[in-house]
Amino acid sequence: MSRRFEELDWQDTAMGEISLRRRIEPTLRADVFEVKLGEEFLMSSLFPVAEIELARLGLGAIAASTAEEAAAGGGLDVVVGGLGLGYTAVAALEDPRVRSLAVVEALAPVISWHERELLPDAVGLAADPRTRFVQGDFFALVAGGEGFGQGTPALLHAVMLDIDHTPSHVLHPSHAPFYGAQGLQGLRAHLHPGGVFALWSDDPPDEHFLALLREGFGTAEAHLVPFANPLTGGTSSNSVYVAVA
């Protein structure tokens, strides 16, 4: 068994000190990987269910006619906002329809973790020929209207976002405008008709935000994703919003 605790990486960034830690979870007697930004826990490999469902629910909601057109053109073009521990990106690549995957991540150290294959559950992500890491501010790229970097198609079949805690609890104030009507309209402009925007949230569904999605996209729903929580011995949940352009 590996050591009980190990800090795999620590770096100072524009958003604060970020660290990747591995520890033994005594309730499971297994390795757990955690990310901290400053003193705040961002994510843990203990709870990947909703991050995986973000990809599955998002890709599964693409309109049938849009998916058929994509298949005729070579496959789905997908963007994931926020790399993290890699669960959403890995789950997206499990869909054989995906032709290209651009993962937008603001922090270079996070990209480095995957390039160095420090995370066992995401080994192979960086080496997959469909994957391209884009170091940049997802929200600024959407607001700029110029797309997600050279090599990413102007129109996408799915954009799946997991950066902030919730639409109202953001990591940086500059992210907040994205979750309003104008910001969501800007995101929709990057999607094919019938394409999907999917969003992870730590809180139960927010009816106000769901109403904004329906106004901007026409069709939207929120899924409550339950998962076993070994720390409490009970069940916890996250939400996944899915809106179709």
How would you describe what is shown here?
This protein has a single domain, classed as Rossmann fold (3-Layer(aba) Sandwich). It is built from seven helices and eleven strands. The chain is 26% helix and 37% strand. Helix 6 links the parallel strand 8 and strand 9. The strands form two sheets. The chain has a seven-stranded mixed β-sheet with strand order 7-6-5-8-9-11-10. It has a four-stranded antiparallel β-sheet with strand order 1-2-3-4, with no helix packed on it. The protein is of the alpha/beta class. The chain is globular and about 50 Å long.
Task: Describe what is shown at a glance.
The chain has 245 residues and is an alpha/beta fold.
CATH-defined fold name: Rossmann fold
Quickly name the level 1 CATH class: Alpha Beta
> Which regions have little confidence, pLDDT < 50, spanning 5+ residues?
none
Largest sheet: 7 strands, mixed
What pattern of helices and strands is seen along the backbone?
EEEEHHEHEHEHEHEHEE
Cα-based radius of gyration, to the nearest Å: 17 Å
Which bin fits the share of residues in helices?
25-40%
Query: How would the global form be characterised?
Result: globular
Number of DSSP strand runs: 11
The number of helical elements comes to: 7
Mean pLDDT: 94
CATH architectural grouping? 3-Layer(aba) Sandwich
- How widely separated are the two ends? 48 Å
The CATH homologous superfamily is called Vaccinia Virus protein VP39
Strand adjacency order, main sheet: 7-6-5-8-9-11-10
